[in-house]
Amino acid sequence: MINKNESALGNFLELARSNMRKYTMFIILGIIMAIFAFGTSGVNLNPRNFTFIFVQNSYILILATGMVLVIIIGNIDLSVGSVTAFTGAVSVILYNAGCNFFTTIVLTILLGLLVGVYQGYWIAFVKIPAFIVTLSGYLMFRGLTYLVTNVTPITPRTDVFKNTASGTVNFLSMDLGGGGDVIHLLPVLLGIVIVLFIIFFSINDRRTKIKNGFKILPIGYFLLKQVFISGILLLLCVQFTRYRGLPNVFVILGITVLVFTFLTKNTVFGRYIYAVGGNARSAKLSGINSEKVVFLVHVIMGGLCGLSGIVFTGYMNSALPDAGILFEMDAIGACFIGGASASGGIGTIIGAIMGGLVMGVINNGLSLMNVGANWQYIVKASVLLLAVWYDVYSRRKSGLG
Fold this sequence. Notes:
Structural class: mainly alpha
Number of helices: 15
Radius of gyration: 22 Å
Oligomer: single chain
């Protein structure tokens, strides 16, 4: 009887540790926001600032979604900032030449995919290290950006780019009491729908694990987990209701995250990505076409650079020759802060998004406190180093490193 209790306790502690690792970023983000709430007298928690954080960091979060896949397969991409600048510049040139906006988006993403094909070929099939290929791409596409822009900002002929990045979806709005205090209902309604989907799929996943004999959280902790995730999401949606409605970039980012979360968790290709990152040689011996997986991941990264280029151009309302500088560092940092492993095989889309938000909240909070850019770099560097140290430490402690 004692052995049975000890075994149950051991299983519970193991599950608790694994889930604590998954949700560490949520806790850290909450602590950081609480610290800045004290330092800014609550200004960082107002609805306008919440919207600003998402709009300001949306293009980095899109890049982080692709970068985490690159890091999982054990590679790195130093070219994403330059490719973002290049595709953004081309998108404005296409639009100003007479393309409608939808066609511009499609062609820009296709251009990004072609860049991914070019770099992915050298990495996957010619076997040149990703560091070298993407460093070459960093220089090449920066030069091409200067060429197509003639080192001069290019402004879109209408505000459609700007509305994409900074606009909001604000129908289903109510004026409370006729005093100009408007509340936008769409974010909350959308939040409720997403929460119901999350709960449905979580219950489904739990039943599948029980059926196949996998370890699961006790029912009480499972319910607590659902309440925690749902509460955070609904709180965010409530903030959006109080200022201009649902940001367009939140919709774009949300769709991107859902697509790639599904890809990594529920598809054979997603499992192949983790297998190649965990051990490319073993994956090859088990019948996985490792070269094809690596190639497709870099193609995906290129496509997301195209999407990021459109969003950043809209945020600035101009295609800038110097756009995208250090974007690759922010995207890589977001992935490592969000739990991706430098040795490959470990990482999640949600983790990368949380890591990007941690960096965004730190930038935003320090700016609100009038802390200079020099100290912002120092703080971000320290957070990145601590995040990687935590990864190395936890892997050694668990016997994985």
